[in-house]
Amino acid sequence: MEELKAKGVDVELLVHDAKDDPAIQTSQIETVIGLKVSAILINPVHAEAVQPALEKAVKAGIPVITTDRDVANPALRLVFIGTDNVKGAEQAAQKLIEALQASGKPKPWKVVILNGIPGTTAAEDRKKGFHNVLDPLVRDGSIVIVAEEVANFRRDQGLSVTESILAKGKFDALIAANDEMALGAIQAIEGAGLKPGVDVIVVGYDAISDAVEAVRAGKMYATIAQSPFLQGYWAVYAGFYRCYFNWKPTVGWIPTPTVIVTKANVDTFAVEVATPKPLP
Amino acid sequence: MARKLSLSLSKLGRPLRELLRYELGGPLVALMALITASSILSPRFLEPYNQRILLLQTAPLALLGLGESMVILMGSIDLSPGSTMALAGTISAMTFTRFGHPLSVSILVGVLVGLAIGLVNGLLVTKAKIPSFVATLASLVAGRGMVLVLTEGQPIVGLSQYRVITEEVAGLPTMVWLFIAFGVLNYFLLKRTSVGLVTYAIGGNEEAVRYSGVRVDAVKLFNFILAGGYYAVAGLMMNARLEVAYPWTGWGYELDAIASCVLGGITLSGGVGSPLGPVVGAYMLTLLTNILILLGVNPYFQWVVKGFILVAAAAALTRGVRYVK
After folding, report:
1. Would you give the distance in Å from CA B157 to the centre of its chain?
2. What residues make up the domain containing A147?
3. A207 and A102 co-located in one domain
4. Could you give the CA distance from residue B73 to residue A92 in angstroms, rounded to a whole number?
5. A177 within a domain of the structure (yes/no)
6. First to last CA, chain A
7. Are A86 and A64 contacting, i.e. CB atoms less than 8 angstroms apart?
8. pLDDT tens by residue, A126-140
9. Are A95 and A187 contained in the same domain?
10. Among residues 156-185 of chain B, which lie with CB inside 8 Å of chain A?
11. What gap in Å lies between CA B299 and CA B318, rounded to an integer?
């Protein structure tokens, strides 16, 4: 925004917080339509619930750009700017394999997968990404998936589910579809008298602050950071291109990069994900 | 029919017949059947590590079940356990980390929060005359809201001192001793005091109890408050288990608490069931989740199996009842 202003573009940003409530977001969309804004950049709190309001925006000729989360009907938005969760999960799984190789543990490596809430885009995409990397290795016999359970993105369930999996026997690595479940698993691994990071390699996803601390402490091997900064940054540019040059994106979805956070970049990744990059 | 039943039972032997006559008999037989089946199906089941985690996982749920049973025995229902445990855990954690009070004070504050929510529930039911389902539904929603407002959705970290609750004392973690102690306390309260007698009587026929001049509202209020206290203890246990106050602790646990009561032989219409039923029920529910993971059953199918077991248990427990609503 400031960049555009510095270049002499006449722009103004109005910010609304929907507090994750579709009703609030709907009335906010209606309000800004009334203000005749030039573009709406929105993180839809629900894929369907805010669509009627966005339809009104489209009818009023206001371009809509979705970030982070998308709406169900792609015709309602100009472009979606968000993380490629399949790719992020593939990176996470690759990092897990790298760690297993470096650890010198004997093959086949026993791996556990914890999945998120079934049916949510994030859970399904991340599950797919894990399997894209792990399945070929299962086929060639270098890893065995000893358990694949659902812990609903929750820390308490990550704890109790992992405790039960540990009762089946020790395993070498665990990959979770979010950090909360991975942190619960770490708690369970410690409770069983094992050392997370040494006996069991744990990889999470999201890079929440607790997880970053765990990476720093060596308990979590890696987590995946998304780029909320770039999502916002690119969304502003997309809106600007649309309004000034009548830009038409060639793709419906511009994926934002994910960064693997390990002990090596635990102090610098925050800068890395917040560095402006030009819109592809 | 009764003749036939007793005949077939006589073949099973006298001890079992004796056991089934006892009000905790049904659940205990079901529990033994589950334990036997599980130990045959998985050699890992009986290992000390597995039994230990079963007890650890049961403890908070058992506390929720005990609280829930105080309310269900009166023929009411409480939907607030999950939110109450989360709010008690959160405020206790904040007292400890943000305001720097000692652990003992923080634990006390947590319990007081639970008692206070119980008091509100009780007043809504007895004074405002709102049906318990609606009153506690409001607490469920508002309680979770307060947790999210206070934590802004982020876990409160730095609770390693809560480990005293999970540390081992005389071979078992403190929280296991705690739930055994609360089980005994609950048994004494319900079976040996007039409050317990009135609790069962309210569930049986509230009108009759009211006509006989008993202060029904006072007992109701007491039970709701006590239930809130039990939920708070469960919340503190979860703080200790996770070593953070996790804002989604107990999300959906009200249903597990009710299921623990049902599996433990407490009828939802009130007045019938053993004070120790919820403990047995909570253990069964935890055991089910555990054995399904040990056996590597598909996670989606696990829910189907749990549903069937719940129906089977409920069907077994209502045998001989003339009708249900």
Report:
1. 26
2. 85-225
3. yes
4. 50
5. yes
6. 18
7. no
8. 999 999 999 999 999
9. yes
10. 157, 166
11. 29
CATH number for the domain running over B25-316: 1.10.3470
Minimum-distance CB partner of A168 among B44, B166, B248: B44
- One-letter identity of residue A67: T
For residue A68, give how far its alpha carbon lies from the nearest alpha carbon of chain B (Å): 18
Residues of chain A below pLDDT 70? 1-2, 280
| 8 A C-beta contact, residue B166 and residue B49 | no
How long, in residues, is chain B? 325
Average pLDDT value over all residues in chain B: 89
Question: A77 and A90 share a domain?
Answer: no
Give CA–CA dist A259/B238, Å, rounded: 32
| Helical residues (DSSP H) of B167-273, grouped into ranges | 174-192, 194-211, 216-242, 253-263
* A141 and A9 belong to one structural domain: no
Q: pLDDT, tens digit, for every residue of A189-231? A: 999 999 999 999 999 999 998 999 999 999 999 999 988 888 8
Question: Which of B58, B141, B241 should be substituted to probe chain A, the one whose Cβ sees the most A Cβ atoms within 10 Å?
Answer: B241
Domain residue extents for chain B: 25-316
Instruction: Tell me B24's DSSP state.
Output: T
* pLDDT for B1: 44
**Number of neighbours of residue A181 by Cβ within 10 angstroms:** 31
Asked if the C-beta of B154 comes within 8 angstroms of chain A's C-beta atoms, the answer is yes
pTM of the model: 0.83
Residues A33 and A107 in one domain: no
Q: Are B109 and B91 in contact (CB under 8 A)?
A: yes
If DSSP codes are grouped into helix, strand and coil, which group holds residue A82? Answer: strand
Output the pLDDT for position A270.
Answer: 81
Indicate whether A245 and A235 sit together in one domain.
yes
Does residue B278 carry a pLDDT above 90?
yes
- Token output for B228: 């809130």
Separation between Cα atoms, residue B219 and residue B204, nearest integer Å? 14
Cβ-Cβ contacts under 8 Å, B248 against chain A? 154-156
Q: Note whether A55 and A16 are same-domain residues.
A: yes
User: Tell me, what's the pLDDT at A161?
Assistant: 96
Query: Closest by alpha carbon to A116, among A69, A175, A66?
Result: A175
Residue A265 lies in a domain: no
User: Tens of pLDDT along B125-158?
Assistant: 999 999 999 999 999 999 999 999 999 888 898 8
A129 lies in the same domain as A167: yes
Quick check: bond before B299 cis, omega within 30?
A: no
| Amino acid, res. B7 | L
What CATH number is attached to the domain comprising A103?
Answer: 3.40.50.2300
Q: B99: burial class by Cβ within 10 Å (0-12, 13-18, 19+)?
A: exposed
**Can you give the three-state secondary structure of A204-237, one letter per residue?**
CCCCCHHHHHHHHCCCCCEEEECCHHHHHHHHHH
Nearest to B246 among A149, A155, A169 (CB): A155
Q: What is the pLDDT of residue B12?
A: 55
* pLDDT for res B310: 80
One-letter identity of residue B88:
A
The total domain count for chain A is 2
